[in-house]
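Q: How would the structure tokens look for this protein?
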Amino acid sequence: MSNAFDKRKQELNQFSEALDKLNIRKKETTITPKALPDDVTKCPKCNTLIFSDEMQKNLFICPKCNHHFRITPKNRLDALMDKYEVIFDDIAEKYTDFPDYKEKLSKAVEDTNEDESITCAVGYIDGIKVLVGVMNSFFMMGSMGSVCGEKVTRMAEKAYKENLPLVIFTCSGGARMQEGIISLMQMAKTSAAFAKLNEKGLYIAVITDPTTGGVSASFASLADITLAEPGALFGFAGKRVIESTIKEVLPKEFQTAEFNLEKGFIDKIVSRKDMKKTLSLILSLHGYKHE
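A: Here is the predicted structure in token form.
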């Protein structure tokens, strides 16, 4: 049996060599996948194809695997609040000397129809007046520059002055490198504002995917109550950076919302479908009245 196998293998090798000499071996072809229709989205986690109408009805959550897609501030506010008014949208960017920074800002504004990486609003959740900030991953990856830091600070100051609860949906790649040290200063600036708010106000952070860098190391980690959407990434440096520094392999689920919940860094994981009623309950339990 072994001799027959070896003989057959030798014949196949000889045949392959002959094809190479004749240059008639079948060439491999690359098949380019067809683009999906505009009204269809493919889930990056389970590859399910989802129609746009179904996505919107399901609050941009995959119906098969529960993957929470990243959404715009408008989508978030429309789903969460009874009614709202956008505030602090008149703050101008000053530190634009970095090469091509003005162009990148203009493109981000054009692409997202937003003025910055966070949208601030005042309105009502189940009749309870509340301040809500929503960071935008589609605006320069939710990076925190001077305008974002100023908006967050003003939100904390307004919440303190008017005795309003504050909810911020965090989502960021970190400090905006084009503004250098100015962007890093926003960490201290926002942290100081929330230290003041901590004296008498309620601040709830909702961690969405991803929340990293300077935002995770400042106001995202200073809340009285910290919630998170399922699967949201929450940490400072990236997993690969940490692994290369400590020379260890980290768990697959490292820095996910579920991992942070297990380690005590967040208080509860809440599905987007349950976020409104969960926030309403928390606000009610803390004495905020329905109007």
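DSSP finds ten helices and nine strands in the chain.

Confidence is low (pLDDT under 50) at residues 24-29.

Upvote if useful.
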